[in-house]
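User: Predict the structure for this protein chain, please.
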Amino acid sequence: MLKLRLSRGGTKKRPVYKIVVAESKFARDGRFIEKLGFFNPLLPKEKKERIALESERIKYWLSKGAQPTNRVARILGENNFRIFWLSMRFIELLRKVFVQKKIWLV
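Assistant: Here is the predicted structure, written as structure tokens:
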């Protein structure tokens, strides 16, 4: 499964993260498919240099089914990305509710 996640860089106690697309089996700081941006948590939230994103490539990977981690989804949400993805567990719960109320879910 493809994931949009953070890969840690920087030095000890001074982290800088890359936002990457990687297979979920790959190590956190290991191999990745493509770098999509970076995130520097040490800078104040007002600074533009804190986050840089390649929006077209992020949209492409989301359309291919890549799932963002919670932290990456939060970062994308702060930068006006609309992410509509549901976990399989939530979808199954919706189906049970609709079947009980005899509403068809396609």
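The chain has one domain: 2-100.
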